[in-house]
Amino acid sequence: MDDFKVEVLPNDFNTYDLSFKIIIIGDSGVGKSCLTLKATKDYFEEYYSATVGFEFFTFNVKIDGKYVKLQIWDTCGQEIYRSLISSFYRNSSLAMMVYAIDNMDSFDHIGSWLNEVKTQSSPDVKIFLIGNKTDLENKRKVRKDVADKFALENKLDLCMETSAKSGFNAKNIFIEAAKMLYAEHLRFKDRASKGSLGGNDVKLPQPQKLTAKRIDGEEEKKKKGCC
Ligand code: GTP
Ligand code: MG
Question: Which alpha helices (H) appear in the chain, and where do they start and end?
Answer without folding.
Answer: 32-41, 82-85, 104-108, 110-120, 144-153, 170-193, 217-223
